[in-house]
Specification:
alpha+beta; two-stranded antiparallel ribbon; 6 strands; about 35% helix; elongated; signal; Lipoprotein
Length: about 180
């Protein structure tokens, strides 16, 4: 019994000392392909004014701790800010058309095939003036690693390219130009 108690105490101590960390990706970086697609909307002035989070996102990564967006933003806020960064960089950001958005799905795995991971994202954009809307989805796969620390860090870092893919799928959709028209 003493031996079992000792083992349990050692394991519990290891968990307490290991604690948990928050894995945070770097800030968003605009994507060249998204920029090219958005520049075709020359003259448009658009922004994503509001993004509702309907994703039921679970931030926990293995036993390491949560995945959080940079600057203590939610994943929905990160996606909204990323859309607006892309619009600004392409010089089409403005207040003429304010899109409403909903993050429909946000999910990740750091254990796909044991050493790979993925992000699945889906969002809906809507022009409240015209009623036009479109949905976009993205799945981004990446090597994550075997141990929890590496895998969760890689998963956090993969958020930016996953969001870039989501935005690309939205802005290259043929309906996007109709969405951003008055």
């Amino acid at each position: 019994m003493k031996k079992l108690l000792s083992v349990v105490s050692i394991v519990a101590t290891c968990f307490v000392l290991a604690g948990c960390s928050t894995m945070t990706p770097s800030t968003y970086a605009v994507n060249a392909d998204n920029n090219v697609a958005l520049r075709k909307l020359a003259g448009a002035r658009v922004n994503v004014s509001n993004m509702v989070d309907a994703s039921n996102f679970s931030a926990n990564c293995r036993l390491m701790g949560p995945i959080e967006a940079s600057n203590k933003r939610s994943i929905a806020q990160f996606v909204q800010d990323s859309f607006n960064d892309e619009l600004k960089f392409a010089d089409v950001y403005g207040t003429n058309v304010a899109l409403d958005a909903r993050l429909d799905h946000a999910e990740f795995s750091s254990t796909s095939g044991l050493t790979n991971g993925w992000w699945d994202l889906a969002a809906t954009l809507k022009n409240p003036k015209t009623g036009a809307s479109l949905s976009a989805q993205s799945r981004y796969e990446f090597p994550s690693g075997f141990d929890a620390a590496t895998a969760c860090t890689q998963t956090a870092q993969a958020l930016t390219p996953a969001v870039q893919g989501l935005i690309k799928n939205a802005v290259t959709n043929p309906e996007f130009s109709n969405l951003v028209s008055k």
